Structure formats: structure tokens, C-alpha cells
Amino acid sequence: MATPQTTVRDIALEQPASIRVFEKFGIDYCCGGRKPLAEACKEHMIELNTVLKAIEEAAGTGEHPCNWTAEPLETFCSHIVATHHAYIRAELPRLKMLAQKVVSRHGNTCLELGQIQQLIQLLGPDLLQHLDKEEMVLFPYITNLERNLASCGPRPLGCFGAVRNPIRMMIAEHDAAGKTMAEIRWLSRGFSTPEWACPTYRGFYHALAEFEKDLHQHVHLENNILFPRAIELDESSA
Ligand SMILES: [Fe+2]
Ligand SMILES: [Fe+2]
Q1: What pLDDT does 63 receive?
Q2: How many CB atoms lie within 10 A of CB 44?
Q3: Span from the CA of 13 to the centroid of ligand 2 (angstroms)
Q4: How far is the C-alpha of 101 from the C-alpha of 53, rounded, in Å?
Q5: What is the pTM of this model?
Q6: Which of 214, 218, 207 is nearest to 93 (CA)?
Q7: How many angstroms is it from 185 CA to the middle of ligand 2?
Q8: Cα 199 to averaged position of ligand 2 atoms, centre (Å)
Q9: Residues in the chain, pLDDT under 70
Q10: Are 55 and 11 in contact (CB under 8 A)?
Q11: Ligand 2 centre and the CA of 123: distance in Å?
């Protein structure tokens, strides 16, 4: 049960339905989720009891997202690739196109739009490379490890020593992407458009907010569930 002392990350892990609540209040439950709920609420100037009540209500809505702590790792990795990786690949070109349109129309009056465009241009190639590394190296290793151990076969060959090593690199890359999105959030004043904003401007900020939300869900699944499970499997069989 969620208490003021439970970390945000642990609540998200134990009650996946709480993720919607954290998203609603803008509380980071992935990279910055290792702090007690009370502290996170204080930082965001949100009433603790309001959040606790919302978490309790979310648990009773009947919406129970898949519990990835128990599914086979192969199914889990395939889910991440088919949903979050596919979303990033489809959405990045769209974000770039929207940024270009909005900057060309409003960049002279809203200087932050140019800065946001630059951050997206920097983030894009790094994120795409990150997805390739997971899909071509890390995820195949993790799924082979699970499969081979289940059939008492040999450990798969990895070019990186213990699985902790590439995972450490992936977590550092998640942190970097999270920081860039936090900077975009700050520059855009929480993705809020001016009253006079045209539909493209509004669509751009909405797309950015959705992109950040998906990134948080994606990083939560990897940092908090997939990677600890892979490390445990790797070390238990060493
Ligand atoms: Fe990923
Ligand atoms: Fe990742």
C-alpha cells in the first residue's frame, strides 16, 4: 500500500495503475522516482493526501496494466520494441516537422521555440542509436540468456562481460534523454501554449507532452523492471 514514505518508484512498481496519477501530477516515477512520495509532492507543491487518494482510486478503477514482473523476458522485450520503440521512430520525424513549421511562423516572437527545435535535433539521433543498441545487442542477449538457462544450455556469448555493463550505459542514456525532455518542458512552461496559438503550435506542444509521457513509461519499464530482472538472471547463473 502506498504511504508517504514509500518511494514513487516502488508505488509505480507495485501498483502500475498509479502511473496515470503520477503522469497527471507531473511526478517523475522513472529516472527521478527514488524519493518518498511525500518529498515528491512537496517538490511539486501538491497536497500529499490528494495524490494518495488518487492512487487509491486508480487501483479501484479496474484498469490493471500488464504485470511485467512475471511475464517472460522475451515477451517483455518484444512489447517494448513494438510499442515504445515503434512510437519513438514514428513520432520523431513528426516532431521535427511540427517544430520546423512552428519556428518558421512564430520563432521570431517566441524565442524558446528555436531552442526547443535545437534540443529535438540533438535528442533524435541519440535516441535512435539507443533503440538500435537495445534491439541489436542487449535485448537479444537477455532473451537468449533466459531461453538458454531454461533449457540448461550454455550462457550466450556477450561482447560486454556482465550484463550490468551495457545496462549501466543504457541507464545513463535514459537519464540524458530525460534531462533533455525536462529542459523542453521548462522552456515550454509545461507544454502550455499562449492563448493566441494556432492549431499547429498547439499540436506541437501536445505532441511533446505525449512524447515525454511515453518516454517516462518506457524508461520505467526498462530501468525499474526489465534491467533488474536481467541482472538478477545474469548474476544468479554466473
Ligand atoms: Fe527501450
Ligand atoms: Fe532504453
Answers
A1: 55
A2: 12
A3: 17
A4: 42
A5: 0.81
A6: 207
A7: 20
A8: 32
A9: 61-65
A10: yes
A11: 13
